[in-house]
Specification:
This protein has about 700 residues and is of the alpha+beta class. It has 30 helices and 15 strands. Helix 4 (about 45-55) packs antiparallel against helix 5.
């Protein structure tokens, strides 16, 4: 039968609905692909799979198995496709379309598309397989981070522990390598390999006794090995110093802290320790390292125990408004934390002349919302900060605000008097914390937050000392409106509640305070000469003139999206100035209500003056990032969280696209669309879908 005759007969059968007969006819004629399609058209999946699989059309057979929902057949065919790279590529497309991400990863790997495979494995939380692909690409650091993730999920995964140990040793991170190798050595299948690398790592650290002990254990498995460590290293690595002869300790040969962190400079120091800025050569990032220094005896042991306990608590808290703890090293002992390059709130409450300054209300509300979000998260875990003060509120390089120093700064009271090292902290202490009359709880932190808020708004503490103890215990705090008349009475009730002597009279939770904060008229407060020394008599200060406003904002030139870039000379930052009418002003005020770490901040809205001051976020548009860029997935997730905050306030973006998402060094930021054509939640989620964000459920 000629091809033309076959086609004619098949079409005739299909026209009268006899698909099975048409399929049988194609199968008999050797047209397996066409036969499979005809069987599939009448849902005869078993026949469709069988005819294509028998004829070597594995990618088509896999597609039919997907349509049938036949998991067994999908697994069998995926295994077979690993031996056929050209078909595996096509099958991977079908797998991704059906949401079978793990199958797609396996098929991409079989086709040699390692970058795509690694991304798909990671999306499936198959971190070990993702790491294997990264190693094949020569991306050792990325592979190491994936092995770390895998070991957090399964600490007993000896294969991953051995692989991580190899990577860490490759970069000269001997002590970290040993920790991973100790896990690997528990598995008899990996014990010998782990011991060999452990011996080399101990030798590189100069720990000869430890290396010798591990060699004895290794010779129990392989008796024919050399009896001395140098001889073994010579045999394994061609040099009696082993890996130490092959791996440097850092750029220019400088010694690295814990074999991993290159110290850049000291950021601060106190009686019990110091904070260092360092470069993490493994993760390629700057970190802050807090090193504890305590003496011997009972006080030293107690300090270490408290430091270790609180370090582990802090490391377990993951929240966008809490400074992240990356690692606790008991051998230092030290904490490794994310570096907050923007300084602290304390820095911003003191002018260059060391005189106290008022913090602008439009920025104070951002601080309050961030700190309250952090407190709500940690209080739910049963953690009380106990040392909440402006010095522990940190700013990132991208403008994010985070709470740090959980349970660490309070260690400065060891062996110190209340009137000495604790003086700065006492200014923020709740009465029950001073007297020790009850265990600190959420209300203790909220009292300290009230002191911070009072200071931000008025430029002074509610109790100015020097006898902080008596004042906190016995004196009533002044009304903020009496200290700073420009505040009116709007803030009196909240601050009065936060600074109540009795804990039961304070708000019950951070969320309760957050609701009260949102209801306050922050953008209606006109602070005369905001940012000036707080010792000025605010009630007599004249309102700022246009000339003074012009002096504060020095125009730099046009910016993105029709805004004007300017330099805020008072706060030393670049801002965006936009013209506003009533409608745009209302939209920006709504955005200010919904502010969060991943939304462009609104600093000031002056409808009468016809302008608004916005944050100038740093970063590149998402459109410039390659599809496989390591920051892309995180940026899309942060954009999704920004939209969720907006929609919770019934505010819609209206122009979600890859140009409005900026990816900076510390965060992604969703830029405000000043004049959107469409404002509804569906268009926002559709926009996120279009840039690869896979929108959250409506």
């Amino acid at each position: 039968m000629s091809p033309e005759e076959l086609e004619s007969r098949v079409e005739a059968l299909v026209e009268v609905g006899r698909h099975a007969e048409a399929a049988d006819l194609c199968a008999a004629a050797g047209e397996a692909a066409r036969a499979g399609e005809l069987y599939a058209a009448v849902w005869n999946w078993d026949q469709a799979i069988a005819i294509t699989e028998q004829n070597g059309l594995l990618d088509q057979a896999y597609r039919h198995a997907l349509s049938a929902g036949d998991r067994h057949a999908c697994g069998r065919l995926a295994d077979a496709l690993e031996e056929h790279p050209e078909q595996a590529v096509r099958a991977a497309v079908h797998a991704q379309a059906k949401g079978r991400t793990l199958d797609a990863a396996r098929l991409r790997e079989a086709a040699g598309e390692m970058e795509a495979a690694a991304e798909l494995y990671e999306r499936s939380s198959e971190y070990r397989d993702a790491a294997r692909c990264r190693l094949a690409l020569g991306q050792s650091r990325a592979a190491g981070m994936l092995f770390e993730k895998r070991l957090k999920e399964d600490p007993d995964d000896a294969e991953s522990a051995l692989s991580l140990g190899r990577i860490l040793a490759q970069f000269g991170r001997w002590d970290h390598a040993v920790r991973a190798l100790q896990k690997a050595a528990r598995d008899p299948a990996h014990e010998a390999a782990a011991l060999k690398l452990m011996i080399a790592s101990f030798a590189a650290m100069g720990m000869d006794e430890a290396a010798g002990s591990r060699l004895d254990a290794l010779r129990g498995i392989e008796p024919g090995l050399p009896v001395t460590v140098p001889a073994l290293l010579q045999q394994l690595y061609g040099h009696e110093r082993g890996l130490a002869a092959l791996v440097g300790e850092g750029a220019d040969g400088e010694r690295m802290l814990a074999g991993r962190y290159r110290v850049i400079q000291q950021l601060g120091a106190g009686a019990t320790g110091k904070v260092l800025l360092a470069h993490d050569a493994f993760h390629e990032r700057e970190v802050a390292i807090k090193v504890l220094h305590v003496g011997g005896g009972g006080a030293g042991r107690d300090a270490f125990v408290r430091f270790a306990r609180e370090a582990r608590v802090a490391a377990g808290i993951s929240h966008p408004n809490v400074v992240q703890v990356h690692e606790f090293n008991p051998d230092g002992p030290f904490l490794v934390m994310e570096h907050m390059a923007g300084g602290t709130l304390e820095d911003r409450l003191v002018g260059p002349d060391e005189r106290p300054r008022i913090y602008p209300p439009a920025q104070t509300v951002l601080v309050m919302k961030a700190v309250l979000a952090a407190l709500e998260a940690v209080h739910r875990r049963g953690v009380v900060h106990r040392d909440l003060k402006p010095a522990n509120v940190f700013f990132g390089a991208g403008g994010d605000i985070k709470l740090g120093d959980f349970g660490v700064a309070h260690l400065t009271d060891l062996g110190a008097t209340l009137t000495g090292a604790m003086m700065g902290t006492l200014a923020y202490m709740a009465p029950e914390q001073i007297t020790g009359s009850r265990r600190p709880d959420a209300g203790t932190d909220l009292y300290a937050l009230g002191v911070i808020l009072f200071r931000c708004l008025t430029g002074r503490l509610p109790f100015e000392g020097p006898d902080f103890v008596t004042q906190h215990l016995e004196e009533s705090p002044p009304r903020p409106g009496a200290v700073a008349p420009y505040l009116g009475t709007a803030f009196d009730a909240l601050l009065g509640a936060l600074l109540a002597k009795e804990p039961r009279e304070r708000p019950s939770s951070a969320n309760e305070v957050l609701e009260a904060v949102r209801a306050l008229p922050w953008h209606e407060v006109e602070v005369p000469d905001a940012g000036a020394p707080a010792t000025a008599r605010r009630s007599e200060a004249p309102p700022p003139s246009e000339e003074e406003g012009a002096e504060r904002y020095r125009v730099l030139g046009p910016g993105p999206g029709g805004v004007t870039l300017a330099r805020d000379e008072l706060l030393q930052r670049t801002v965006e100035i936009v013209e506003v009418d009533a409608a745009r002003a209302g939209r920006l005020v709504a955005f200010a209500r919904a502010d969060g770490p991943f939304l462009q901040a609104v600093y000031e809205v002056d409808e009468g003056g016809g302008r608004a001051i916005l944050e100038h976020p740093s970063g590149d548009p998402l459109a410039r990032l390659a599809p496989d860029h390591p920051r892309r997935a995180e940026a899309l997730d942060q954009t999704r969280r920004a939209l969720t905050r907006l929609h919770a306030e019934r505010v819609f973006h209206g122009a979600v696209d890859a140009r409005h998402v900026l990816v900076g060094p510390a965060r992604a930021c969703l830029r405000i669309a000043l004049d959107p054509s469409v404002e509804d939640p569906e268009s926002d989620w559709a926009g996120l879908d279009a840039i690869g964000g896979r929108a959250a459920p409506r």
